[in-house]
Amino acid sequence: MFSKTFKEEYYPQIQSLLEQKTRVDSSSIKKILKKDNLNLNDINNLIQSYPNQESRNLIIKTAAQKREKLWKNRLFLVPPLYVTDKCANDCLYCPWRKSNKTQRRSLTTQELKKEMNFLIDTGYNTIQLVGASDPSFSADKIAEYIKIAKEKLKDKKGHIGINFESTDEKDYKLFINSGLDFASLWQETYHPKTFKKMHPKSRKSNFDYRLDAFDRAFRSGLKKVGIAFLGRLYDWKFELLSLIAHGTYLKQKYKIDPFIIGTPRLINTDKIKINNPSNFSDDEWLFAVSILKLAFPRSLPWFSTRASFNLNKKAAQGGGALFTLDCSTAVGGYTIKKDFPQFPVYSKSLDKGIKWLKQQGYKPEFHLPY
Ligand code: SF4
Predict the structure, then answer these.
(1) DSSP string of 55-102?
(2) Taking the domains of the chain in order of start, what are their residue ranges?
(3) Which pLDDT tens digit goes with each residue over 332-359?
(4) DSSP3 helix / strand / coil % (the chain, rounded to 5)
């Protein structure tokens, strides 16, 4: 299981790499960039070259060129559909945390159908259902929602993903049998002490159980998973190395690349404020995303509407990414009520967004690439 490998091998290795503060010259960076497979040492050398403008630009440019060769500027449009904001957890960085006593909402099956119809009529073929850790959403209920959503997409041969709390193999099997195509689950932070601090006692506070989510998902037969950390909770260099270690472990053990790599960063709002969030500037984020693109050429980074369109446009260079245009992070936010979103987003209508993407040289598509 990944929790064991992470604790015994990767965590000490990553700590030691970061302590060394290695600086390699630009000719060594060029050699690393010629490799097809990068190990953690290579990744660390790329990361540590961040202060060197020449190396940094070269890494970003090479990542874009390699993507363009493989993906030819194709982008895959996927919106989220939020089904419940009632939560049993108390994550400090989230307005939907249990201790935030605000009126909450979850979609009935009729409301789910209404939201699905809206997104399908808009033109989408792939939709990700997102839910807080709502105690009333049993595995059977989640399976029912997956089934309804998949049925709605039947004529388009569309795909359904989820971003729900981690669960066991039996539940993942039930979800697959109900039509699930992919499951995303963000680790939030790979740093054990920060994880503990951010997740006061609740189901989600089990760091190891969350680390092992994809072992359980793959053992249940799922082939497509989405991994990520939430930027700004802890040092991005540590998180990036850990995320790549996680993807590498899955690739080596199950012979499957992460399907999706999320790229979220914490946004402080009037509803939620984390004191002294870790630095993860736009430039650092663009650089980190380029390293992810190099580390997993076949994986799809997800450029969501947490970042501005201009920033996402730069990050997606070369293509081979999921991209969100229309977006609401409120439960029922497309057709019912837009209040109480999980976080603020940028949003473009699908028509305008597609036109804009084409003007930038991208080829937006509605079906997943594989
Ligand atoms: S991040 Fe997810 S699990 Fe945590 S409080 Fe928010 S909705 Fe609940």
Answers:
(1) HHHHHHHHHHHHHHHHHTTEEEE--EEEEE---S---TT-TT-TTS--
(2) 2-365
(3) 999 997 777 777 777 788 999 999 999 9
(4) 45, 10, 45
The topology (CATH level 3) of 2-365 is: TIM Barrel (3.20.20)
292 lines ligand 1 (CB under 6 A): no
Decide: pTM greater than 0.90. yes
Evaluate if residue 272 carries a pLDDT over 80.
no
Residue 104: is its pLDDT beyond 90? no
Amino acid, res. 312: N
Q: Could you tell me the distance, in angstroms and rounded to a whole number, from the CA of residue 87 to the centre of ligand 1?
A: 6
> Rounded to whole angstroms, how far apart are CA atoms 249 and 242?
10
Ligand 1 pocket test, candidate residues 85, 91, 331, most atoms within 8 A of CB: 91
Whether residue 97 has its Cβ less than 6 Å from ligand 1: yes
Q: Name the residue of 90, 92, 94, 201 to mutate for ligand 1: max ligand atoms within 8 A of Cβ.
A: 94
Check if the beta carbon of residue 246 is closer than 8 Å to that of residue 207. Answer: no
Distances (CA, A) of 94 to 78, 161, 201, 288, 338: 23, 22, 15, 23, 17
Helix (H) or strand (E) holding 312, with range, is helix 309-315
